[in-house]
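Anyone have tokens for Synaptoporin? Sequence:
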Amino acid sequence: MQWVLFAIFAFATCGGYSGELRLSVDCANKSESDLSIDIAFAYPFRLHQVNFEAPTCEGKRRETLALIGDFSSSAEFFVTIAVFAFLYSLAATVVYIFFQNKYRENNRGPLIDFIVTVVFSFLWLVSSSAWAKGLSDVKVATDPDEVLLLMSACKQQSNKCLPVRSPVMSSLNTSVVFGYLNFILWAGNIWFVFKETGWHSSGQRHPADTMEKQPGGYNQGGYNQDSYGPAGGYNQPGSYGQLLEKAQTLKRLLLQQLWCITTMLTPRTSSAKLKPRAYCSPSLGISYRAKKTNQNTRK
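Reply: yep, here.
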């Protein structure tokens, strides 16, 4: 919704502008003076078509002059981009709200939205920069001091030419600001629109597919306990959580076997009779009995 509002502000502050400046020419002969020369101009700033009359201070004769410059191209380009951005934003808002299923169908809607967003971001930057330069030239061309230099009466030192009122350019300055704000808004939205496309989804699936193609684990030798799989070793691919669980199981088994060895090798006393646990390996019991037999033989 903010795209719609920002676009409206951009073309409204520029396309709806009209300004006026006022000059005064005080001739040596007061009857020939004109103290209120009004010059009005507006969008699209074809200033060379803005005509006005000024006294020559040579009798009753007056001359017709025109402002200098044609800045319609940058102004119209800026307003055109703003209007099209407004229309697209309005249409996109309607689609997002009422046609969400069709928007995501075949991933075509997000792709079109992404491409259009990139294009409008670039156009906003170009049009705002062009209009900022055009506005600077408009300010120079409509500067009362510059306009006074066009009058022949003002070239004579006996006559007094003064600016009475300068045009107000605040709304035009605001239009440039809104132009760059629209660029920031559209450019910042590129990432969020890109996340809706299939390109972003495929990029996220790629690392997972690569992990699944890697071998599952320790295929050489392996541990033959049933908990490690039917083929011995980590032959089944799994996630990091499964690998961590298997590692913890292996650690527990090793600690159990260490307890069994400690129990069987510890000398028996009347106060401490350690018995091998049920999970002790039979092979450890055989080794213990063999060692006990060898000790008795030596005695």
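The chain has nine helices and five strands.
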